[in-house]
């Protein structure tokens, strides 16, 4: 029976009355609940998106999602502000790098001067040195080893660190700010800056009586006046066959007491300007040969540069997606299907022939495929025993050009990566980049001893995939017998 009370008259939906009905109240509750839910979802979506892509944007002038007075939110604000790259400089890149440095912040930088993997390790060491000296690292570009001033063009273009490694991820992982030179100084700047830097190279080896040469400063339009570091920075004193320095020996030069004790007359730069090592932008000529305890420790489990920096140098999402496409094509997997587990192999030959002894043939110097196959079986067995998985797919990356060698790889039913159009489609850097990502994605890895490409791949597989690794020894007949 319909009530005569106008408050319950469902037919009367005038604005003045509908809010008083039970149905109207329910609708209002539903309306406001929906609005609040949508607002919450929007806030969470914005927070997740901004935090994942731009951690600095967690700092909002107005709190859109509720009360911002909680201690947790304040901590998040401070952390995000700290990791915002714009917070570590005055503003947009400037003509002269000095105009963009904050007076309350100290910086540290260096440059690469080797192959790409060596320069990755150099930057890893630079970042770790920044951590222990409490300075903001300013990361250089990667330069191809064949880079020549008279042959500069698109095919030889420098590669920014942030185009390869996920900088927002790395900043969050180490909880410290990081800059690239392109954040500090305009890439098209016409200003050449004079700066004083430490010359480490001349103190750790005895053949080259000069700083380590690099095109990095030239690319950033820096004219450097070098001061030789003291001989005590060398890890193994008076031992010509080792080139390592130590992190804390170099770090001590970042502080006034040891710096002032170590100053000697600097070499003038090309414009005949002599400057002592800069205290605001601390810089070193070369940071590849640096360790905490012993030479080549990047391969060892305790390596601080790897533990605190290297393992957090993840690939950019774009590079990961591109590489996944290559892996799917290599394994003949549809684009919408998951990539099955595989074992990655890196075989380095071409430039290593210079390390073979004169009386040893290349066939005797380099490990044969039968030795590599044995190592592959070892990691397959370990995956089966430790993880309970059978991994049959094997992807081989190598600089080997011999078609007969690759035919033998095919006989093993192992797979090579088709790079026939990679340079054409993506540029000269991408064959080595894609190979490095493939190597890191293996459930297990078999590499070539003494190759920094293999060393980094092995560390990534250990850290990221919890996978077994093996390094194939070489240099003489039977070098990998065991």
UniProtKB/TrEMBL annotation:
The lineage of its organism: Eukaryota, Fungi, Dikarya, Basidiomycota, Agaricomycotina. GO terms for biological process: fucose metabolic process. The chain crosses the membrane at residues 30-50. It comes from Mycena sanguinolenta. This is GDP-fucose protein O-fucosyltransferase 2. GO terms for cellular component: endoplasmic reticulum. It is found in: Endoplasmic reticulum. Pathway: Protein modification; protein glycosylation. GO terms for molecular function: peptide-O-fucosyltransferase activity. Pfam families: O-FucT. Keywords: Carbohydrate metabolism, Endoplasmic reticulum, Fucose metabolism, Membrane, Transferase, Transmembrane, Transmembrane helix. Belongs to the glycosyltransferase 68 family. Residues 1-22 are annotated as: Disordered.
């Amino acid at each position: 029976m319909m009530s005569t009370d106008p408050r319950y008259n469902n037919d009367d939906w005038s604005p003045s009355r509908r809010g008083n009905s039970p149905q109207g109240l329910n609708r209002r509750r539903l309306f406001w609940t929906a609005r609040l839910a949508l607002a919450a979802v929007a806030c969470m979506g914005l927070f997740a998106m901004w935090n994942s892509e731009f951690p600095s944007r967690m700092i909002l002038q107005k709190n859109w999602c509720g009360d911002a007075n909680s201690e947790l939110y304040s901590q998040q604000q401070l952390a995000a502000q700290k990791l915002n790259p714009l917070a570590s400089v005055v503003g947009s890149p400037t003509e002269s790098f000095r105009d963009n440095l904050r007076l309350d912040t100290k910086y540290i930088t260096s440059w690469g001067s080797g192959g790409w993997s060596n320069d990755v390790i150099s930057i890893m060491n630079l970042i770790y040195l920044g951590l222990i000296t409490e300075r903001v690292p300013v990361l250089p570009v990667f330069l191809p080893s064949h880079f020549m001033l008279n042959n500069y063009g698109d095919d030889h273009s420098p590669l920014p660190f942030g185009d390869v490694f996920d900088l927002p991820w790395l900043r969050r992982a180490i909880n410290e700010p990081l800059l690239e030179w392109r954040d500090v100084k305009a890439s098209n700047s016409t200003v050449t800056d004079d700066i004083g830097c430490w010359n480490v190279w001349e103190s750790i080896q005895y053949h080259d009586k000069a700083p380590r040469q690099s095109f990095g400063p030239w690319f950033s339009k820096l004219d450097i006046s070098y001061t030789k570091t003291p001989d005590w920075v060398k890890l193994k004193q008076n031992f010509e066959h080792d080139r390592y320095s130590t992190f804390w020996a170099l770090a001590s030069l970042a502080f006034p007491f040891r710096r002032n004790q170590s100053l000697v007359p600097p070499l003038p730069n090309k414009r005949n300007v002599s400057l002592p090592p800069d205290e605001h932008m601390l810089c070193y000529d070369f940071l590849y040969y640096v360790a905490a305890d012993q030479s080549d420790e990047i391969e060892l489990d305790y390596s601080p540069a790897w533990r605190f920096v290297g393992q957090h140098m993840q690939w950019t999402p774009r590079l990961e997606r591109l590489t996944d496409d290559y892996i799917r094509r290599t394994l003949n997997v549809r684009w919408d299907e998951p990539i099955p587990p595989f074992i990655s192999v890196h075989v380095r030959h071409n430039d290593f022939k210079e390390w073979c002894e004169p009386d040893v043939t290349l066939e005797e110097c380099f490990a044969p495929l039968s030795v590599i196959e044995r190592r592959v079986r070892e990691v397959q067995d370990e995956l089966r025993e430790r993880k309970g998985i059978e991994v049959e797919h094997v992807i081989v990356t190598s600089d080997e050009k011999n078609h007969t060698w690759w035919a033998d790889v095919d006989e093993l039913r192992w797979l090579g990566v088709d790079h026939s159009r990679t340079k054409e489609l993506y540029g000269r850097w991408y064959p080595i980049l894609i190979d490095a990502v493939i190597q890191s994605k293996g459930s297990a890895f078999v590499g070539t001893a003494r190759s920094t490409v293999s060393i980094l791949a092995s560390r990534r597989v250990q850290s990221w995939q919890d996978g077994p690794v093996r390094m194939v020894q070489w240099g003489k007949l039977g070098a990998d017998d065991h």
